[in-house]
Specification:
Layout (H helix, E strand, L loop, with lengths): L21 H49 L6 H51 L8 H39 L18 H30 L2 H27 L4 H66 L6 H110 L20 E10 H6 L13 E9 L6 E5 L4 H18 L5 E6 L30 H23 L6 H8 L6 E9 L5 H13 L5 E8 L10 H7 L1 E6 L2 E4 L8 E4 L5 H17 L5 E2 L19 E8 L3 E7 L7 E4 L6 H15 L5 E7 L7 H5 L5 E6 L3 H25 L4 H6 L7 E7 L10 H16 L5 E7 L10 H5 L3 E4 L4 H7 L15 E5 L8 E8 L2 H17 L9 E4 L10 H7 L11 E6 L6 E5 L15 H18 L6 E6 L6 H12 L4 E4 L4 H17 L8 E6 L22
Parallel strand pairs: 3-6, 3-7, 4-5, 5-6, 10-20, 13-17, 13-18, 14-15, 14-16, 15-21, 16-17, 24-25, 24-26
Antiparallel strand pairs: 1-2, 1-9, 7-8, 11-12, 11-20, 18-19, 19-20, 22-23
Length: 1191
C-alpha cells in the first residue's frame, strides 16, 4: 500500500485495525506519519517548485524586457549613422592595413631581389681579371659600347619575345607542346640555343615516328578480323568444294557432268576471290603511303621553321658572348634605378588606393545616415510594441503559475484533512478494538471472566498519547491547519506469538513501575491464552520471588505453569535457561523441521498437538546472571520468538547491558521502554515522541481470583487427547501387517501430521524400556500398544505375554475381552508367577532354537521362508518389572539371568522384551549390561534421576515433560540425538472394549484357535473353577472307576504348570488344613474340594459329611445348602449341638473298616468348618477358649 499518491491520483487508503501489537501499531503510526509527511513534503515540493517557477518566469521575462530596453534604437539619425560609420571606419582601417601590408611585402621583395642581383654582379666581376687602369679614350670607348649594348639588348629582347611567339605557334602547328615562356623572356637566356634546337628536332622526329606507327596500325586495323575471316573463307571454300567434287567424281561415276561443272565453277570462284583481295590491299597501302608523304612534308616544314626561328637567336647569343663584361657599376646603378622606380610605383599605387577608399567611405556614410534616420524611427515603434507584448505575456504566465499552485494546494490540503481524519479514525478504532479484546481491569466483564477459546494475539501494556498538533509537527508540518486541542491515543501491546519481546530499561526510580508492568504482562498473558497454552519462567534474583509473589498461587494447582517455581540463584537461573534452549532445539528439530516458519504456523496445523508458548520474565537483570546464562538469554532473544519463547527483561539501567545482548535485537524483535525523567517512555520510532501511559493494575481481589481460576483451568486442560482412531487401522486394514521382518505399531502422534511407531526387530531396536512416574500415562501407553498391535497383527503373527506387578487391574481388560493374541495375562501378579512365565518363555526360546537350527535359519523371516513351523513373534510386556528385584533372593537372581538371556538372544528367535517401570532407582539387581541391550527407550514425565537412568546420563530431556502422555521416543539407546517427542494416543475404556471385542469377534469368525489356551492369573482375586479345564472335562464325561484318585482343584497355581490341587492319599496325613480369616474364601475352598471329588466319584462311591461350627446364616451353611441340592452324592451337615453324634458315627465307621467288618470302602470327605468354634473338640487344658471367640 503506497503511503502517498500523486496529486492527480485517488485518495489515500484507510489504515487497517486488524492487530494491536507494537509491530502493527508502529507500522500503522509510521505509515500515518509517512503519509502526512509525504503530503507535507509534496506541499513543500510543489510550493518550492511554484516559487522557483514564478521566480524563473519573472526573471526570464525581466531579462527579456531589459534586453529589449537595452537594444532600443537611438532617437536621432546621427546615432544610427554613427553605428554604420563605425562599421565603415573599421572596414577602412582593415583595407588600409591590408594595402600597407601588401606594399611592404612588395618593397621587401624588391630589396631582396636587388641585393641578390648585386651579389651576382659582384661574383661575376670577381671572376674577370682586374683590367688595367682605363685611359680617357678607353673610358669614352667603354661608354659608347655600353650605350650600343643597351640598344642592342633592347632590340634583342623584342626579337626574343617575337621569336618565342613564333616558336610556340610553330610547335602548336606541329602538334608539339612547348611553353612559350621558355623561349620568350624579358631577360637574357642562360641556356644553350643549339641544344634547344636539337631538343626540338628530336621531339619532331619522335612525333613523326609515332605518326607513322599510328598510320600503319590504322591501315592494317581497317582490315578487321571479321573481314580477314571473310576473305580467307572466300578462298578456302572453293577449294573445299573442288575437293568434294573430285571425291564424288571418284565415288559416283553417274554424276560426272555435274561434278565437272561444279569443278569449273569452283575454279572460277577461286580466281575471282584472289583478284578481289589483291585489289583491296593495294588500294589501302596506297592511302597509307600518301599519308606518310604528307607527314614528311609537314615535318620538313616544321624543321625549317624552327631552324629559321632559332638561327637569329643563336647569332644573337654568339654576339652577346663577345661583349666585354666590365660594367659592374653601371649594372648596379641600373638595378638600383629600376628598384627605386618599382618602389615609387608601389607607393603611388598605395596612395591611389587610399584615396579611393576614403572617397568611397564618404559617399557610403552620407547614404547610410539618411537611411538610418528613417529606420531608427520605425525600429523605435516596433521595439515599444514588443516590450508591451512581453510585459503582458509575463503577467499572464505568472497568473497561470499562481492559479496552478492554488489548485495543487487545495488538493493537498484536502488530502491532508482526509489523512488526519484517517489517523484519528484509526486511533479511535484501534482503541475500541483494544477495549474489546483487552478490556481495562476495571471493566465489569472481568467479574464474569471465562477462559478464551483461542488467543487474541496481543497483550496490552498501556497507551501512547500525543496531541494532534505535535503529531503533525513530527510530519515536517504544519503546512496546513491542525486543531490544537485534539489528542491521539493508541494502545501499546506486545504481539504474541509474532516476534515480540520487551526490554524495560529503568533505574531505581522506575523499578516499582517496571515490576508492576511485568506482573500485568504475566496476568494479561495468562488471561488471554486458553488454559495450559502458556507456561512461565520467572527469574527474580534480587527480590527472591517477592517481585512475583502474587503469581505463586498458581503453583498450588500446577507447578508446570511456573516452570517449577521462581528462579532466584545463579545455578537455577542457568539451569532454567538451559531447559529453554533445549526446548528451542526440540521445536526446531522436531516440529518446525524446515516445514514451518514459526511455531504459530505449526500450531495452526497441529490440532491437539499444539505446542504451548513460553514467557520468560527477568527482573533486575543482570543480577546473578553468569556469562553462560547471559549467552542463553541472548539466544532466546534472537531465536526464541519463532519457537514460541518470548522474553521480558527488566534491566537495571544503572548497570551496563552485557555485551552479548544487543539493543538492535530488541528493536528488531520487540519493544524497548526506557526511563525518561522518572517515567517510562517508548524507545521506538515513530513512538519515541509519544507519552507512554502504563495500564492501571488490577485490584488485589481480582488478581487473586483470576490466578486461582487460571490455575484450576490449566490443571484440567493439561491433558491432551490424541484420538486412538488416528492410529487404528481401517476395517479393511485390520490384521494386514506381517511380523516376519519386524514390528511397527503406531502408538501416538509426533509433530503436526506424523505418527509415532513403536518398532522392534530392526537393527539394535529389539527390546524396549518404558518409564514414567505415576500419572504420566504409562498404563495408557501399554493399553495403546497392545490394542494397536492386536488390530494391525493377527494372532498368527504376534503373541503377547503380559505381566503386571502393580496393585491394579491394567491388563484385566485383555482377559475380560478374550484377547486372542494373549498367551499369558498376569494381573496383580506375584513374583513367583512372573518367574514361572519367564521360565516358560525360556523353554519356548529353547524350543525355537532347536527349530531354527533344524531349518538352518538365522531369524524369524528366514525360518518362515525355510518352511518351518509358522511361529509368531512374542512380545513380553512386564509392567513394574522392578518388583522382581525388591528382595535379594533366588527369584531376583533367576529373573535377572532370564531377562538378560532374552535381551541378548531373543532377537534371533522373534522374542522381544518390553519393560515398564515408574522408577529405575531400585532396579540394581538387573545388570546395566542388560539395560544397555534395550535399544528403544520411551520416557514419559519423570524426575531428573530417572531420566538419566532411563535415557542416558547426558540426556535429561524427559524431566522437561509435564503433560500426561507426553513422551520421548528414543531408538538410539537413549542418546540425545535419538530423541523424538510424541504424544501417546488416548484410549478410553469404552473404545478399548469395542476394539478388543472387534478383534475377538474376528478371531472367532475366522475360526482361530490357539495351540494352548491362554493363562490368566489374578494375584489378588479368586480363581474361577469354570475356567478350570480339568474340572470341565470331568464334568463332561461319565463317572470314573472306584479307584479314582482323591484330588481336587482348589484354585489357580502361581505357575504355568496348571491348577493348584488338594490331594487325599490313602495314608497318614492325607488331610487338608485351611487357615485364614476370610471365611468366604475358606468356604469356597471347601466347596471346590467337594465338587472336585464328586466329579471323580459316582454317587454312592463317595460320602460327604460336614461339621459346621457356625450357625445357619454362615457362609459355609449357605454353600452347603447349594451343594446338597446339586450333588447327587448327598451331604450331611452337622452343627455344633450334633457334633457328638456325628463324631460317634465316624468313630464306628472307622472301627468297622479297621476290623474289616464293613464291606463299603467308599471314601468319606469330612469337612470341618469354623473349627475354632467347636468347643467340644478343645482339650481340657485349653485356657483361652471362650464362646464364639477366635482361636
Amino acid at each position: 500500500m503506497p503511503l502517498t499518491t500523486p496529486v492527480t491520483g485517488t485518495s489515500d487508503h484507510a489504515l487497517g485495525t486488524d492487530r494491536l501489537g507494537i509491530d502493527a501499531v508502529s507500522e500503522r503510526v509510521k505509515a500515518a506519519t509517512a503519509q502526512l509527511a509525504a503530503i507535507e513534503q509534496e506541499r513543500a515540493h510543489y510550493e518550492r517548485e511554484w516559487r522557483e517557477a514564478r521566480a524563473t518566469i519573472a526573471q526570464a521575462g525581466q531579462r527579456t524586457i531589459d534586453r529589449m530596453e537595452k537594444d532600443r534604437p537611438l532617437p536621432e539619425a546621427r546615432g544610427a549613422a554613427e553605428a554604420v560609420f563605425a562599421t565603415l571606419q573599421a572596414d577602412r582601417e582593415r583595407w588600409a592595413t591590408r594595402v600597407a601590408q601588401v606594399c611592404a611585402r612588395m618593397r621587401k621583395q624588391l630589396r631582396a631581389t636587388l641585393e641578390q642581383r648585386l651579389m651576382e654582379i659582384e661574383r661575376s666581376h670577381a671572376a674577370v681579371p682586374e683590367p688595367s687602369p682605363p685611359t680617357p679614350e678607353m673610358a669614352r670607348e667603354t661608354e659608347r659600347r655600353r650605350t650600343a649594348f643597351q640598344a642592342e639588348l633592347e632590340r634583342l629582347r623584342k626579337q626574343v619575345a617575337t621569336l618565342g611567339t613564333d616558336i610556340g605557334r610553330a610547335c602548336r602547328r606541329a602538334g608539339v607542346h612547348m611553353d612559350p615562356a621558355a623561349v620568350a623572356t624579358d631577360v637574357l637566356p642562360t641556356w644553350d640555343l643549339p641544344r634547344l634546337m636539337g631538343l626540338v628536332r628530336e621531339e619532331i622526329e619522335d612525333a613523326q615516328t609515332q605518326f607513322v606507327e599510328v598510320s600503319e596500325s590504322s591501315a592494317y586495323g581497317a582490315v578487321r578480323p571479321g573481314g580477314l575471316l571473310f576473305i580467307h573463307s572466300m578462298v578456302a571454300l572453293p577449294h573445299i568444294a573442288l575437293l568434294a567434287a573430285l571425291y564424288y567424281l571418284a565415288s559416283f561415276p553417274d554424276v560426272v557432268p555435274w561434278a565437272i561443272a561444279s569443278s569449273v565453277a569452283t575454279q572460277a570462284l577461286i580466281v575471282l576471290s584472289t583478284w578481289l583481295r589483291r585489289r583491296f590491299l593495294a588500294k589501302r597501302f596506297a592511302q597509307i603511303h600518301a599519308a606518310h608523304a604528307r607527314v614528311g612534308a609537314r615535318v620538313e616544314l616544321l624543321d625549317q621553321a624552327v631552324t629559321d626561328a632559332l638561327n637569329p637567336r643563336l647569332t644573337l647569343h654568339q654576339r652577346l658572348a663577345n661583349i666585354p663584361v666590365d660594367d659592374r657599376a653601371d649594372r648596379a646603378k641600373t638595378l638600383q634605378s629600376s628598384t627605386d622606380a618599382a618602389l615609387t610605383a608601389v607607393r603611388k599605387r598605395e596612395r591611389a588606393l587610399a584615396e579611393r577608399i576614403a572617397a568611397r567611405f564618404d559617399l557610403t556614410l552620407e547614404a547610410v545616415t539618411i537611411r538610418a534616420a528613417e529606420r531608427a524611427q520605425l525600429e523605435q515603434e516596433r521595439h515599444r510594441a514588443a516590450i508591451e507584448r512581453e510585459t503582458a505575456a509575463l503577467a499572464e504566465r505568472l497568473s497561470v503559475c499562481d492559479r496552478g499552485w492554488g489548485d495543487v494546494r487545495s488538493r493537498l490540503e484536502q488530502r491532508w484533512t482526509e489523512a488526519v481524519a484517517a489517523v484519528r479514525a484509526y486511533a479511535a478504532a484501534v482503541g475500541q478494538r483494544a477495549a474489546t479484546l483487552q478490556p481495562a481491569w476495571s471493566h465489569p466483564s472481568w467479574s464474569s471472566w471465562s477462559p478464551p477459546g483461542d488467543y487474541a494475539g496481543e497483550i496490552l501494556l498501556g497507551r501512547a498519547r500525543m496531541s494532534l498538533a505535535d503529531f503533525a509537527a513530527t510530519c515536517d508540518g504544519p503546512g496546513f491547519p491542525v486543531a490544537a486541542d485534539v489528542s491521539l491515543e493508541i494502545p501499546v501491546a506486545l504481539g504474541l506469538p509474532s516476534p515480540s519481546s520487551l526490554l524495560v530499561r529503568a533505574g531505581a526510580g522506575c523499578r516499582h513501575e517496571a515490576l508492576r508492568l511485568a506482573n500485568q504482562i504475566v496476568l494479561r498473558s495468562l488471561a488471554s491464552f486458553p488454559p495450559g497454552r502458556l507456561r512461565l519462567t520467572l527469574i527474580d534474583p534480587v527480590g527472591l520471588g517477592d517481585s512475583f509473589a502474587g503469581l505463586l498461587d498458581m503453583a498450588d494447582h500446577d507447578e508446570a505453569l511456573l516452570g517449577g517455581g521462581i528462579l532466584n540463584d545463579a545455578t537455577r537461573i542457568e539451569r532454567g535457561l538451559e531447559d529453554l534452549i533445549a526446548h528451542l532445539e526440540m521445536v526446531i528439530q522436531k516440529h518446525l523441521r524446515g516445514r514451518y516458519a514459526t511455531i504459530d504456523d505449526y500450531n495452526r496445523e497441529a490440532g491437539e498437538m499444539q505446542e504451548a508458548l513460553r514467557l520468560v520474565v527477568v527482573a533486575d537483570f543482570p543480577a546473578s546472571f553468569s556469562e553462560r546464562a547471559i549467552e542463553h538469554l541472548s539466544v532466546l532473544i534472537r531465536s526464541g520468538a519463532r519457537c514460541g519463547v518470548h522474553v521480558v527483561v527488566l534491566h537495571d539501567d544503572r548497570k551496563p547491558l552485557p555485551g552479548p545482548l544487543d539493543l538492535a535485537w530488541f528493536r528488531q524483535s520487540g519493544l524497548i521502554l526506557r526511563e525518561v525523567q522518572g517515567r517510562l517512555a517508548i524507545d521506538r520510532d515513530p513512538l519515541h515522541a509519544w507519552t507512554f501511559v502504563p495500564e492501571p493494575p488490577p485490584s488485589t481481589e481480582l488478581a487473586t481470583r483470576l490466578i486461582g481460576e487460571i490455575g484450576k483451568l490449566a490443571l484440567g486442560a493439561k491433558r491432551i487427547e490424541v484420538p486412538f482412531t488416528s492410529v487404528a487401522p481401517s476395517p479393511d486394514a485390520v490384521w494386514s501387517l506381517s511380523a516376519a521382518s519386524h514390528l511397527s505399531i503406531p502408538i501416538g502422534k509426533r509433530g503436526a501430521d506424523r505418527l509415532q511407531h513403536f518398532e522392534l526387530g530392526r537393527g539394535t531396536c529389539q527390546h524396549a524400556l518404558i518409564g514414567g512416574r505415576t500419572g504420566s500415562g504409562k498404563s495408557t501407553l501399554f493399553h495403546v500398544l497392545v490394542t494397536s498391535a492386536a488390530l494391525w497383527y493377527s494372532p498368527r503373527e504376534l503373541e503377547f505375554h503380559l505381566i503386571d506387578f502393580k496393585k491394579g487391574v491394567e491388563f484385566k481388560a485383555f482377559a475380560a475381552h478374550h484377547l486372542p493374541h494373549a498367551r499369558v495375562i498376569a494381573i496383580e501378579s506375584d513374583r513367583e508367577f512372573g518367574l514361572s512365565v519367564l521360565r516358560h518363555l525360556d523353554q519356548e526360546l529353547t524350543r525355537r532354537g532347536d527349530s531354527f537350527r533344524r531349518a538352518g535359519a538365522q531369524d524369524l523371516a528366514a525360518h518362515r521362508k525355510a518352511g518351518g513351523e509358522y511361529l509368531p513373534r512374542i512380545l513380553l510386556l512386564i509392567d513394574e518389572f522392578q518388583e522382581f528385584f525388591t528382595e535379594d533372593d533366588a527369584i531376583a537372581r533367576d529373573a535377572a539371568l532370564l531377562l538378560d538371556r532374552f535381551v541378548r538372544q531373543g532377537r534371533a528367535f522373534g522374542v522381544h522384551v518390553v519393560l515398564g517401570s515408574q522408577t529405575l532407582g531400585g532396579s540394581y539387581a538387573l545388570a546395566k549390561s542388560s539395560l544397555g541391550q534395550m535399544g528403544v527407550r520411551i520416557a514419559l514425565p519423570c524426575n531428573e534421576n530417572d531420566a538419566h537412568l532411563l535415557l542416558h546420563e547426558d540426556n535429561d530431556a524427559a524431566r522437561l515433560l509435564t503433560r500426561p502422555g507426553d513422551g520421548i521416543y528414543n531408538d538410539r539407546a537413549g542418546l540425545v540425538e535419538g530423541n523424538s517427542p510424541f504424544q501417546v494416543c488416548w484410549l478410553s475404556e469404552e473404545l478399548e472394549a469395542a476394539q478388543l471385542d472387534h478383534v475377538a469377534g474376528r478371531a472367532q469368525a475366522e475360526g482361530w484357535k490357539p495351540q494352548r489356551p491362554p493363562v490368566i492369573f489374578e494375584g489378588n482375586g479368586p480363581s474361577n473353577l469354570e475356567e478350570e479345564l480339568d474340572l470341565a472335562a470331568l464334568l463332561a464325561r461319565p463317572h470314573v472307576a472306584e479307584d479314582a484318585r482323591m484330588r481336587a482343584a482348589i484354585g489357580q497355581s502361581s505357575s504355568l504348570k496348571g491348577a493348584a490341587e488338594a490331594t487325599f492319599p490313602a495314608s497318614a496325613g492325607g488331610n487338608v488344613l485351611i487357615v485364614g480369616q476370610n471365611r468366604e474364601a475358606a468356604a469356597a475352598t471347601c466347596g471346590a474340594i467337594a465338587i472336585g471329588l464328586a466329579a471323580r466319584h459316582a454317587p454312592g462311591k463317595l460320602r460327604l459329611m460336614a461339621l459346621d461350627g457356625e450357625d445357619q446364616d454362615g457362609p459355609f451353611a449357605r454353600l452347603h445348602e447349594r451343594l446338597a441340592a446339586v450333588l447327587p452324592h448327598g451331604s450331611v451337615r452337622h452343627e455344633a449341638r450334633s457334633l457328638a453324634a456325628a463324631l460317634g458315627e465316624l468313630s464306628s465307621l472307622l472301627e468297622r473298616r479297621q476290623s474289616g467288618a464293613d464291606a463299603d470302602h467308599a471314601p468319606v470327605l469330612v469337612t470341618v468348618f469354623a473349627l475354632q468354634r467347636l468347643r467340644q473338640l478343645r482339650p481340657d487344658d485349653d485356657l483361652g477358649g471362650r464362646d464364639g471367640g477366635e482361636p
